[in-house]
Amino acid sequence: MSRTRLTAEERQEQLVAAAVTAFSRGGYAGTTTDQVARLAGVSQPYVIRLFRTKQELFLAAMQHTVERIEAAFLGASEREPTLESLGHAYFGLLGKRELMAMLLHGYAASADPAIGDPVRTGFGRLYDTVRDLTGCTVEEARDFFAEGMLLTCLASMRVIGPEAVPLQPWSAELTATYPETKFD
Q1: Which parts of the sequence belong to the HTH tetR-type domain (predicted)?
Q2: Would you call 52 helix, strand, or coil by DSSP?
Q3: Are 155 and 94 spatial neighbours (Cβ–Cβ below 8 Å)?
Q4: Which tens digits make up the pLDDT trace of 82-131?
Q5: Domain extents in the chain
Q6: Which end of the chain, N or C, is less packed with Cβ atoms under 10 Å?
Q7: DSSP character string of 112-150
C-alpha cells in the first residue's frame, strides 16, 4: 500500500493541529517543538524549517484557535445574527477542550510582548466580529465575552462539557442556568 504525500499546505495544517494539542497540554513554556514534531509524525528540524521558531508555531496555533471561533460565530450569524445564536455556537466549541486550553495558554503567555500583541489582536478580531455581526452595544459585548470567559474556564476545569466531572455545590450553582447542550 502506498502512502499519499501531503501537500505543503496540508503538512502545515497537520503541524498546527499537533501544536494545538501539544500547547494545550503543556502551555508555551512547557512544550517543545520536538513534542509537536512527534505528535505530527515529522522531524523537529522540519517543524523549524516551516515555522522557524517555537514562538511562531505557538502563534500559528493561536491563530488557528481564533479562526475556529470566528468561523463558529460566522456560521451562527448566517442562521440568526444575535448574541444568543453566537453564544450557542461558542457553547458548542466548549467540548473542544484543546481549543479552550489553547486559548487560555495564549492569554497566559501574553506577558511576552511578541506573543501578547498577536494574541490581543486575535481577541480584538473576535470582539469586532461579534459587534459587527450582531450590532450589539459595548456593554452587551462585554457581558458576552465575560460569560464566554467563564464558560471557557469551566470547560477547561471539566465542570461542563463532554468530560465533565461530578458537580460540586459551587459549580452546580454556577451552571444551573445553562441548559443541556450538545457539544460538537
Answers
A1: 9-69
A2: coil
A3: yes
A4: 999 999 999 999 989 899 999 999 999 999 999 999 999 999 999 999 99
A5: 8-175
A6: N
A7: SHHHHHHHHHHHHHHHHHHHHHH---HHHHHHHHHHHHH
